[in-house]
Structures are given as C-alpha cells and as structure tokens.
C-alpha cells in the first residue's frame, strides 16, 4: 500500500508541474502580459519622459516583443541609474522604481560637462538634467587625465578636489553646502570659492583633509562676525599656517575674531 501511495503522490506532483508549465507558456504569449504602460518612480535628475526616451520605451504600442527583462536592461544602461525594481501592478501596467546614483560634483573641463558619482565614476552631464545643487570642479588645464566612465581619482587634481568636498560633507554640512566652485588656478594651486563668502580661498596642494577642517573651524568662528565683510582672502597653502587677508578698513573695526 505504501508503494502505491508513493506512486500516486509522484503522479500528482508531475501533473501539477505540467499544468503550471502549460499555464506559464500560455500566459506568456497571451495579451494579458502585453505591457501597455510604464510608470517610473524615484526620478530626480530627469523627467519620466526623458528616461523613457533615452531607453527607447516611449511608444509601447509599436513594440510587440517588449518584456520585463528588456525594460530592465534598457533602463539600467542609463548613466544616472544605479539599479531598479520592477513591479507588475495589473494587466498591462509595469511600475519601475529607479535608484539614481548619488552625485558628488559637477566637472567642467575644456567646455565639456560631466558629473562625478560618490564612487568617483565620471559620467556625462545630460543638458536637460535638473535639481543639480552640487559643487563644481573646474579643470582649466588643456590636458585631461581622466576618461568618461573612468575613475576620477586617477586624476590627481580632481582627487584633491573630491577630498575637500567629502571632508566638508562629513565634517561641516554648512561649509559643504556653500562650496560653489573648486578650480585648479590654471594648473597650479587649488582655489576654492564659497557661495556665502566672496573671498577666494587658496588651498595649495597636499593635506586637503586637514586644511578643510581648519577652514571649517575658521568660518565657524567667524559666522555672524562683521570682520568677514573685510576679508579679502584665506590662504591655506602653507602647512600648519593660515593667513587671513583683510581690507584696510579692518583697522577701524572693533570686533575681534
């Protein structure tokens, strides 16, 4: 009896698997699974239409061979996309949750525009990109020591600029949010400009992390102090020394740092 019971059980399992397989193939080829609409969530830098146009998914009624795998492959190839989640909501509707790469900076080099991700990847800056509020790194040198989709840290100057940005982001959010531009002063020393101060900041080369911490402490101490109105420059080019250049009018100012 036990032998026949095992046989019946095996036959039942085989029958169930056969039915499931048949239904899977039948539904795959039916109109139930035809994708007629794609919803995109989580987009920040580009509109839904721009992502669909880039992925050639804007006219679904003209695509008879569209599949979830094809949609995933096309959207994940976009340079702004880190990964995506795909969900089938109902008949014909596919929802895509996209996760964009975290951007650390905009890079301007020889009239070309790029963005640098938090993994130091250099990607193209698409002209229609929106919601960009990032520090700008300006490469004034005619020589480019980096490649598109390459690692920005392979360029020594860009690597120094990224260290300043990363340190400020971790150590002093206010300083980080006010970094407007980091340039290489025509290939020489690093020059930093802040949006809330008109005075240039000469960084020099080397010890970017320590110098960023020094700069943070200086401006924390000077916030709300009217001496900043007379500040002409901050010079951090010399190790363990900080020079502040003031306008001559500072001699009549009674407040002290």
Can you tell me about this structure?
The protein is α/β, with parallel strands linked by helices and 257 residues long. The chain folds into 3 domains: 1-33; 36-100, membrane protein fhac (Ubiquitin-like (UB roll), Roll); 103-252, Rossmann fold. Helix content is 31%, strand content 27%. It has 6 helices and 12 strands. Helix 4 (156-171) packs across helix 6 (208-222). The protein is elongated.
What's a quick, concise take on this entry?
With 257 residues, the chain is α/β, with parallel strands linked by helices.
List keywords for this structure.
single chain, 257 residues, alpha/beta, Ubiquitin-like (UB roll), Rossmann fold, 3 domains, 9-stranded mixed β-sheet, 3-stranded mixed β-sheet, 6 helices, 12 strands, 31% helix
Number of helices: 6
Fraction in helix: 25-40%
Please state the structural category: alpha/beta
Report the average pLDDT across residues. 82
Topology:
Layout: H1 2-28, E1 37-41, H2 48-54, H3 68-76, E2 81-90, E3 93-100, E4 103-109, E5 112-117, E6 122-124, E7 136-139, H4 156-171, H5 173-178, E8 179-183, E9 190-194, E10 197-204, H6 208-222, E11 231-235, E12 243-246
Parallel strand pairs: 1-3, 4-7, 7-8, 10-11
Antiparallel strand pairs: 2-3, 4-5, 5-6, 8-9, 9-10, 11-12
Helix pairs in contact: 4-6
């Amino acid at each position: 009896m036990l032998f026949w019971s095992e046989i019946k059980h095996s036959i039942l399992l085989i029958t169930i698997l056969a039915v499931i397989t048949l239904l899977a193939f039948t539904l795959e080829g039916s109109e139930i699974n035809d994708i007629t609409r794609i919803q995109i969530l989580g987009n920040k830098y580009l509109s839904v239409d721009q992502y669909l146009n880039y992925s050639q998914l804007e006219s679904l009624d003209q695509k008879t061979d569209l599949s979830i795998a094809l949609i995933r492959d096309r959207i994940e190839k976009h340079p702004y996309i880190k990964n995506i989640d795909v969900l089938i909501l109902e008949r014909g509707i596919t929802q895509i949750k996209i996760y964009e790469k975290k951007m650390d900076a905009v890079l301007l080099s020889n009239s070309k525009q790029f963005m640098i991700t938090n993994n130091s990847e250099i990607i193209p800056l698409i002209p229609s990109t929106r919601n960009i509020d990032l520090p700008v790194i300006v490469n004034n040198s005619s020589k480019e020591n980096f490649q598109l989709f390459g690692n920005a840290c392979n360029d020594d100057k860009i690597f120094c600029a990224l260290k300043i940005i990363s340190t400020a982001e971790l150590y002093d959010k206010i300083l980080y949010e006010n970094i407007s531009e980091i340039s290489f002063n025509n290939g020489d020393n690093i020059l930093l400009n802040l949006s809330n101060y008109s005075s240039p900041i000469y960084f020099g080369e080397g010890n970017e992390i320590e110098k960023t911490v020094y700069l943070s402490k200086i401006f924390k101490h000077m916030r709300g102090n009217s001496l900043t109105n007379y500040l002409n420059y901050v010079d951090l080019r010399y190790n363990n020394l900080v020079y502040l250049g003031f306008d001559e009018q500072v001699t009549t100012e009674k407040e002290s740092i």
